[in-house]
Amino acid sequence: MMDDSELEAIATPSGSSSIGDAVSGRAQSVPDEGEDDELYDIPERRPSLDLGPSPMDTSHWHYVDQASAPALSYNSMTSEENLSTMDVDDGSSTRVQLDRADSYSSCYSFDSDDCEKRIPRVKSNDDAVSEPSDTPELIQDPNAIRHPSLTVAFTFKAICATLGKLTEADFKRFKMMLWKRYPQSFNTPPQGMDMVDLVDRLLECYDLEVSLQITRTLLEEMERNNVIDFLQTLCIRNEVRHELKETLKRMYGKVHEDWAMQGEKRPLDDVFTNLHITSTFNNGPNREHEVLTIEKLDTNHKEGKLLSTGDILSAERLEQSSLKLLLVTGAAGSGKSMAIRKLILDWVEERSHQHVSFLFPLPFRELKKFEDSEVSLVDIIQTLYPETKKLTEQDYRSDDCKLMFIFDGLDEYDGPLDFQNTTLVGDHTEATTLNILVVNLLRNRMLYRALFVFFSRPPVKRCIPWDTLRDQIEVRGFLDSEREEYFRKRFKDPNQAARVIAYINSSKTLRIMCYLPLFCSLVADEHQHIFKEQGTGAEVPRSITYMYTKLMLVLTRQQHTFRARYCSPDKERDFLMKLGKLAFSMLEQGQFKLKKPKWQEHGVDDTETVIKSGLCMQYITKTMVFYQDKVISFIHPTMQEYLAALYVFLTFTNQGKNIFEHQLKDKVRGIFKAHKVMELYKSAVDRSLPYEDGKLDIFLRFLFGMAVKTNLELLQPFCTSSVKWPTFIEDAAALIRKRIRENEYPGRNSNLQCCLDELGV
Questions:
Q1: Cβ atoms of residues 326 and 471 within 8 Å
Q2: HEC profile for 123-191?
Q3: Does the chain have fewer CB atoms within 10 Å around its N or its C terminus?
Q4: Tens-digit pLDDT profile for residues 7-62
């Protein structure tokens, strides 16, 4: 469980070979200049303990713990009361009392060629008095339980790292003392052994606790308290890291299958699908469209490199850049939360980011509980992760103890980000307000050795100052191949997965929209419900409107839950109407992006649309130091078409107004809606058919789909009056078939057929 880089980097004395070289027998271990060459000649590797092909390989260490030597418990070995300096041995017994039978059972095998074969002589009482022993014996607490973090790998690396702190002379003395105190472990004096062979032998002949205690005891006799403290620190960090990983595994190791977090929990590895993460940012929305060809929206023209979650501030990435603050952006539903879970779990399972000693996820949803009090960064860490209370000030500042902080949901933080006037705080132990902490963290003024990753929706305002050194990447959802892979992992029954994949492939728009993991989740939720109620062979709907309505509702519900809890239904309806009106106006003009001032002219608040609702995204088309050309668009062109159709539908439903008939007088609005409904759809069809580019085709499909009963039930909260159109399906189908028979616009017939699909006929 111990971090490899933390230990290996300091495990060997100055000038010596690495642990790996010593293990492989390819290098000489020379701790310091001036030592006799013969002292550190590496002997031929013994076959008794094969460390495997690499210094970190512990797959063949399964027999190390066969020794039965009693020892102090691991917990007591790392306790404060055992850190006192022991008297240097002068031939009499040490402060560690003799309590072991004089046998050599501590050696792992009597038949080993490396251990002396002796038949233990039974001592009389007189012998015990007259023959003082130089061997410090270790007392084992029979009730002690080994801490699960104490493994062969950690013990080996920790002792090597500790001995690596010794000078050439001290290391030589250590070996001499080891030979004097524990001669039964060696056939010959160990002066010719390198450090790895020495530790190897120690672990072969003694339990892990005993090996650590022997090391500590001899160092105490050498009065190397600083090295003892170093070993103590490694042990405590190892315990904390193990407990922290157990906590994070419980929190992030399993996920709910459905977005509402009501379904079965499954291991993340079973459901996680690789995400499209690019090294460039400000890339704008996905431009794929079933009908239209939409040009690149003047966004980032650089070709980005495809990344994985393991590349986020990885050791290789840090070698190429000294930047230690990273902003990860992505549209709502693009998979940022899953990327965070994968990043955390990979660290826990030691699959990536092993240069990081401690990883602390600090979601802004959790940080909000500290808004009304003064706290320090350490207070927050210890409150959310109590196991870290054993860490010391040195652990937060040490070069060999890398910390990584993950802040999820920066867009959910609504406090002021005043980078000019906020008090400067650089001490992570200083108590202050949450706002001051956040601003200084974004300023990168705290724990300058640590790594910081912030996840956020594409920001409306500059959430990190331009003069703060940072990197930025973007999460863009699924690539085409991952969309089907998601459903194969989501559904345990291959037949059900095949049915869902066939459903999304039946409509190019559906397949395109499944680039959003959130949309995929909604499609899977719907089909799971159908299969549960009707069986795998059930007929699935071909409508796309229903799924878009669910996506819109999920995003607005997230807004209520985490960003604007006190938004009234009337205010929410007014917001959607205002946004839909803008979407319809842009659609008629063939526009899919607008600069920020234009949005403000239409009375649309960019913060509400981008940050709170997640229906839109912002990006920068011209990046300069003192000027940035900010552009806003919908998260996908089809979402713009959906909201435009919603505006037309609600305008007619709530106000009785057909926006395609400007001559309609106010006095007849709202009267005889049932008789006027087909007039709305007739005028919408007639408006869309002449456009050869099909710019209103998807809009028309959504408009027909909104009047279907299942969709009306979802939209009911936005309707101010009940909608009762008993013959709508038949009348609408008759209208569409009539237009197809007339064949006035043959190129539009395929879209009219899709409108029939929306009606379910």
A1: yes
A2: CCHHHHHHCCCCCCCCCCCCCCCCCCCCCHHHHHHHHHHHHCCCCHHHHHHHHHHHHHHCHHHCCCCHH
A3: C
A4: 444 444 433 434 444 333 333 333 343 333 333 333 343 343 333 333 333 333 33
Question: Within its chain, how far is the Cα of 650 from the centroid?
Answer: 40
Of 274, 343, 272, give the one whose Cα is nearest residue 482.
274
DSSP summary character for residue 561: I
Percentage of the chain beyond pLDDT 70 is 75
**Per-residue pLDDT, 298:** 60
Mean pLDDT, range 286-293, rounded to an integer: 89
**What does DSSP say about strands 254-256 and 265-267: parallel, antiparallel, or unpaired?**
antiparallel
- Determine the 3-state secondary structure of 22 from DSSP: helix
In whole angstroms, give the CA distance from residue 661 to residue 667.
Answer: 14
Question: What does the CA dihedral 226, 230, 235, 241 come to, rounded to 10 degrees?
Answer: 140
Q: How does pLDDT run across 229-250, given as a tens digit for each residue?
A: 999 999 999 999 999 999 999 9
The tokens describing 181, both together, are: 């105190």
Candidates 510, 453, 470, 458; CA nearest to 339 is 453
- According to DSSP, the β-strands at 594-595 and 628-634 are antiparallel
Q: What does the alpha-carbon distance between residue 706 and residue 46 come to, in Å, rounded to a whole number? A: 77
* Helix residue spans in 185-252 (DSSP H): 195-205, 208-221, 225-252
Is the torsion defined by CA of 99, 102, 103, 106 positive or negative?
positive
Give me the mean pLDDT over the 489-503 stretch. Answer: 93
Of 451 and 320, more confident: 451
652 has pLDDT over 60: yes
| Radius of gyration in angstroms for the set of CA atoms belonging to the chain, rounded to a whole number | 35
Separation in Å, CA 591 to CA 305, 390, 545, 595: 29, 58, 22, 11
Q: How far is CA 454 from CA 410, 433, 444, in A?
A: 7, 19, 12
Q: What SS3 class is residue 295? A: coil
Residue 444 has pLDDT above 50, yes or no: yes
